[in-house]
């Protein structure tokens, strides 16, 4: 029995480009697609093109005024002063020509994935162009213009009326999505990330757990800088299983930032490929156990676009399509094609060897702190449980 | 920062002749922990805390406890004289009051009349705002020699990269009087160019400190 899975892709994704020096580079998606094709895992019939999100759809989450500002910036008609009110024209989110269209395709890609799964066309769908979790209602931030995750969840609530579990494994806190549903008991958000003590955006404390009706439906694991695989996976897996059992979602949406890897230049977590192999396997398992398989996945952060992101994201698709992770050597044709473009030597295997990873002197302290966080977070889950 | 900018001006009060029962009710209804006691001219003549009121109430463990204690006048248990502050006092000064005294709220008095109240919780909230941790930002810590002009020197590097500074803290470096630590929260997800600039200018970064290998 072949599984029904969909891979959302279009060359239009790479039009979301701020400037040549900017760390957010959608060439990652193309590299991943190419890696999957050379691994004989991605066929023409798996691919669906993203649609462009309509302004009405964007307005499910974003303020009209903000959308208008982005459209103006798109045409080069927004002044610097007008832009700054909306976070447009900063170093993180500079204005660029046709930015409204480029951003609308990323959101539309996630909506396409949602519809593929919820209409029954596919069990799982992947939009690596999405996962822009820092966008706010009326503000661009952290490389994100429109927040596809927040728009997609609003869309699911409106059109399908399902309970959504949002799981965010980006190394940065999934703040935009969390605040969007902070008072909504039908949307549960769970984000594991490097502690905000130093790292952007700074929020995502274990004590942030929702307000009003939504109290008890926001979960955060702000793990220590330099956390390694074992501790990451232990707290993540325990938490995910508890939360999914407590919330019993109808559908799972995962944001798969690939910036928790040691090589990532923007963060200080010390993961290896092991976590990016386990993350999709767990999402897949729990989606089948609780949601009849309904699982939509997006990309997210990830700033080592050569050594980390393509391998990490290819594993998501591999798990969706074959229920297994890829092992052994990377296809030599992929390596040959890209090595001369890459500024760093590309890894030759799917899994990381031990040699690349530093010894962390405070390892046991970090593990202890992360474990205490886990207990604190789960305590809230149990409190909410007994109240409901 | 001035007291008037953070004080709560909506203050439930009681006259000295009110009963303990009324005080209990008022605390519960408004979810507050302190009630200033004022006279007919709105002058603060005492203050009671939730603990004072509870201590003066019959134990909830005794079913047939004598309820008449609840009818005692509040002035029999209020604390006085009361430490008060002025709307133009500094928030930092209240922090000192809270640190040195045993209570957690001070009435704000202007021309002898009650105009507001500041609680310890209030003040901590203000300090959280001051540290900038409520705005999307990244943190950078730099160890610098303690000499005139050092702050603008480092801040200039951040300005040159066109990034907003959300907050700045300056604090001592351990016990060494020759150095200070500058803590910046900068409004960017990509502090790398700034970090590179600070390194190139010869400053020592305490964070990111790269205990294993330079990431840059």
TrEMBL record, chain A:
Pathway: Ketone degradation; acetoin degradation
SUPFAM superfamilies on file: Arginase/deacetylase (SSF52768)
One Pfam family named in its UniProt record: Hist_deacetyl
CDD domains in the cross-refs: HDAC_AcuC_like
InterPro entries referenced in this protein's UniProt entry, alphabetically: AcuC (IPR003085), HDACs (IPR000286), His_deacetylse_dom (IPR023801), His_deacetylse_dom_sf (IPR037138), Ureohydrolase_dom_sf (IPR023696)
Record has Lyase as a keyword: no
Domain Histone deacetylase per the UniProt entry, residue ranges: 22-319
UniProt superkingdom: Bacteria
Entry keyword set: Acetoin catabolism
Family annotation (PANTHER family): HISTONE DEACETYLASE HDAC1, HISTONE DEACETYLASE HDAC1-RELATED
Stated family: Belongs to the histone deacetylase family.
The protein's name in its UniProt record: Acetoin utilization protein AcuC
Higher taxonomy: Bacteria, Bacillati, Bacillota, Bacilli, Bacillales
UniProtKB/TrEMBL annotation, chain B:
Domain (CBS): residue spans on this chain: 7-65, 78-137
Domain ACT: 139-213
SUPFAM superfamilies hit by this protein: ACT-like (SSF55021), CBS-domain pair (SSF54631)
Gene3D superfamilies xrefs: 3.30.70.260, CBS-domain
Keyword Ligase: no
Keywords tagged on the record: CBS domain
Domain of life: Bacteria
The name this protein goes by in its record: Acetoin utilization AcuB family protein
The species this protein was found in: Oceanobacillus luteolus
């Amino acid at each position: 029995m072949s599984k029904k899975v969909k891979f959302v892709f279009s060359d239009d994704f790479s039009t979301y480009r701020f400037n040549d020096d900017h760390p957010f580079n959608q060439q990652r998606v193309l590299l991943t697609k190419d890696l999957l094709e050379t691994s004989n895992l991605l066929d023409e019939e798996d691919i669906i093109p993203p649609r462009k999100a309509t302004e009405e759809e964007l307005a499910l989450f974003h303020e009209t005024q903000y959308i208008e500002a982005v459209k103006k910036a798109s045409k080069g008609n927004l002044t610097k002063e007008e832009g700054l009110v909306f976070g447009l024209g900063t170093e993180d989110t500079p204005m660029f020509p046709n930015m409204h269209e480029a951003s609308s395709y990323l959101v539309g890609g996630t909506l396409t994935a949602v519809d593929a799964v919820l209409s029954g066309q596919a069990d799982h769908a992947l939009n690596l162009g999405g996962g822009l979790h820092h966008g706010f209602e009326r503000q661009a931030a952290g490389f994100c213009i429109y927040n596809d995750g927040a728009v997609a969840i609003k869309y699911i609530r409106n059109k399908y009326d399902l309970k959504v579990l949002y799981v965010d494994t980006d190394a940065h806190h999934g703040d935009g999505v969390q605040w969007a549903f902070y008072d909504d008991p039908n949307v549960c958000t769970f984000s594991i990330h490097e502690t905000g003590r130093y790292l952007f955006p700074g929020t995502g404390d274990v004590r942030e757990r929702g307000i009003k009706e939504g109290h008890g439906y926001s979960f955060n694991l702000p793990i220590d800088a330099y956390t390694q695989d074992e501790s990451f996976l232990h707290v993540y897996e325990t938490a995910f299983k508890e939360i999914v059992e407590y919330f019993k979602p109808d559908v799972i949406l995962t944001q798969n930032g690939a910036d928790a890897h040691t090589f990532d230049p923007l963060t200080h977590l010390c993961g290896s490929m092991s976590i990016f192999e386990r993350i999709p396997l767990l999402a897949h398992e729990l989606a089948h156990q609780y949601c009849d398989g309904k699982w939509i996945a997006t990309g997210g952060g990830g700033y080592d676009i050569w050594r980390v992101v393509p391998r990490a994201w290819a594993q998501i698709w591999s798990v969706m399509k074959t229920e297994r992770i890829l092992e052994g050597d990377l296809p030599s044709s992929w390596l040959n094609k890209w090595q001369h473009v890459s500024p760093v030597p590309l890894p030759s295997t799917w899994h990381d060897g031990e040699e690349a990873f530093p010894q962390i002197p405070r390892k046991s302290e970090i593990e202890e702190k992360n474990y205490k966080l886990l207990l604190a977070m789960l305590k809230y889950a149990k409190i909410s449980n007994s109240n409901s | 920062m001035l007291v008037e900018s953070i004080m709560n001006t909506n203050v439930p009060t009681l006259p000295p002749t009110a009963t303990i029962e009324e005080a209990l009710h008022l605390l519960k209804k408004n979810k507050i922990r302190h009630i200033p006691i004022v006279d007919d001219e709105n002058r603060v003549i005492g203050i009671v805390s939730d603990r004072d009121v509870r201590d003066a109430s019959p134990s909830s463990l005794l079913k047939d406890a004598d309820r008449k204690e609840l009818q005692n006048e509040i002035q029999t248990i209020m604390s006085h004289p009361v430490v008060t502050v002025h709307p133009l006092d500094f928030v930092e000064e209240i922090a000192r009051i809270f640190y040195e005294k045993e209570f957690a709220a001070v009435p704000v008095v202007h021309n002898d009349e009650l105009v507001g109240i500041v609680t310890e919780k209030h003040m901590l909230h203000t300090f959280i705002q001051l540290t900038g941790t409520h705005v999307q930002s990244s943190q950078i810590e730099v160890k610098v020699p303690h000499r005139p002009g050092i702050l603008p020197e480092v801040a200039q590097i951040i300005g040159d990269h066109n990034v907003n500074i959300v907050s700045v803290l300056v604090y001592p470096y351990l016990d060494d009087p020759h150095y200070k630590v500058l803590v910046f929260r900068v409004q960017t997800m990509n502090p790398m160019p700034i970090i590179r600039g600070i390194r190139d200018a010869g400053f020592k970064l305490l964070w990111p400190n790269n205990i294993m290998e330079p990431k840059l």
